Amino acid sequence: MIIVQAKAIPKDETSKNEIIGFAQDLIEKSREEAGNVDYNLLVNTDDDTLLFVEQWDSIEILNNHLKTEHFIKFGENIGDLVAEDLKISVFDANPTSL
Hints:
Elements lengths: L1 E7 L4 H19 L4 E8 L6 E7 L2 H7 L3 H10 L8 E6 L6
Antiparallel strand pairs: 1-3, 1-4, 2-3
């Protein structure tokens, strides 16, 4: 399983709300993609940063996601709303028991 964490730092409160609005379409369509396990957007209440947390069945499926119209459109829509480039971490994880 592939896990993605993408941190977005909005320029201000208005930008944060606009990013969240644009994210709604991205999240909905991404969850419908074959091979998507989970796709969420979390808001840090301390500093208003946004964190996308995604789970995909494989790196190939994730790479296909990065080419979708809704993913590309989201990136175009938020380009002027973030203070810096998204910080993206990708992990290859295997389920385990505690």
